[in-house]
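Re: that chain you flagged

S.,

Sorry for the slow reply, it's been a week of failed gels. I finally had a moment to sit down with the sequence you sent. For the record, here it is as I used it:
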Amino acid sequence: MRKKMYKAGKVWVAATLAIVGVMTGGAVVSADDNGDELGVVADEPVPQPDQVVVLQKDETTSASSASASADIPATSLSSVDTTSVASAESDASSDHLSQSANSSTESLGSVASAGQALSSESASAVTDKAGSVSSATTPEVSSATSPQSSAATEIVPSSVSSVTSASTTVSRRGLTREVTPSAQATHQSAAVVKKQVPKSTAQVVSAKAAPQATKHATVSTAKVTVAKRAASTTAKPVTKKVVKPKPFTGYKKGVFYQNGKRATGYLSDGKHRYLFRNGVKQKGVQKFQGTYYMFNLRDGRMMRNTYTASQWGLWYLFGADGRILTDVQPWAGGYYTFDARTYLKHTNVYEPARWGTWYMYDETGRCVSGYKYWQNGLYYFHPGTYLKATNEAVWENGNEYWADGGGVVRTGNWQIEHAIDTGTSLVGHSPYVWGGGHNSWSIAARQFDCSSFVRWCFANSGVFAGNVGDAVTYSQTSLGQGVPWSNIRRGDIFFMDHIGHVGIYLGGQYFLHDSPSSPTGGVGVSRLSDVVDRDDRAYAVPWYDIVDGVVRRLV
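Prediction finished late last night. Pasting the structure tokens below so you have them in one place:
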């Protein structure tokens, strides 16, 4: 009986030490599977407030518990303090004390389970309220193999196991009480808190505030880190774009540059277009793109629709696009032909056009319409078609002429035509001699003045026009029949310059006479529109301006 009582007493003592060890974080009592032998595992030193407790992590800890949050809300820790621990102890001592030794032994075996359930429920309660528990501040109970016992129990920072038993009976100092899982959790929580924080009240309050402060510090540090990262992201060094200056386009010292280079080609300077070669404006006739263009000799601008002289004095016609023109071209109310090789206009020529039709061009290069005296003959070209009249009657001032097969216009009166042919034979071969033709030897020498020349022409046709010795302009004004100027016809004689000069009218405003102002300087053919004498101011006027209006018809 004593032996049994002694054994029960050992069990009671061991149970008491186990409870005290769990509550105060002291030694942990372990029992074997049969509950026969007890062992005390040496307790780890109690950590001081300024120390960091490093606990061995259980190999069976789940991954979810290892990733638990590091912050414990102050409200969760404030409920687990010294007062709650003391109350738990008082309740345990006032429970039923009359339990058998076997019950004590069973309660000892359940102490470890109660410690595990205590840690599990405490950690679960904290997790439900705060969301997560820091692995550095929440110790847990787990089973691990020890050198001293195969079932030793120690506190490690790991996940807690769930409690399956409903209650456990604990014996202390001869008294027994039933410990519920909630009470066990309270005791275990007290042990956990005591192991982590100082025993004084000030230290407990400091421990309560530390996790929250740590949380705020952690958040503040995270915010600063994010702000630094953002600053490092946004405060990247700005690389200035090097804007290359645009190549220069414009004039420098009279030279035109385009995109930094001396301009060459037909280009615009922003106002007008010019032909540049090595930056210099070209002037006059210039070859460009296989043809020729004219650039103003003064400012270099291209000239269009103009007939103008080149830098070497020759005249050319340039079209609407500025190109030089060839062939038959309309210009200034008439038509002109420009040579395909020399680009010069044709003058005083009767020639076929590119399409085979023949046209007559006067001394100005204009295509003739009307009468034209050419190669000692008078011709008529129809207005509009510019074609020569042949084998047909033509008219002038109400007088009828006849254009033969070659286009030569005649009156049909042989005396008139013979007199004109006689005088025409001397064109360019008889220089003017004042007072000549009034004797036989000067006539033989074909030296005449104006009045003697007219007398000699009609005398060869059998028509009297005055005596050889006294035939002068004043005496000739009374010959034949007088007619108005508006009715003058081919073969009539008329007077000019106050009866100081006389000539034979050929038709078409042409006349045959002997004068130093004629194109030949003697016997020649002039037109009334020709200038009398360009070298004499008094006679630098057309012949028409010095016509007296006196007309005599001898035949």
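What I noticed first: Confidence is low (pLDDT under 50) at residues 24-179, 181-202.

Talk soon,
D.
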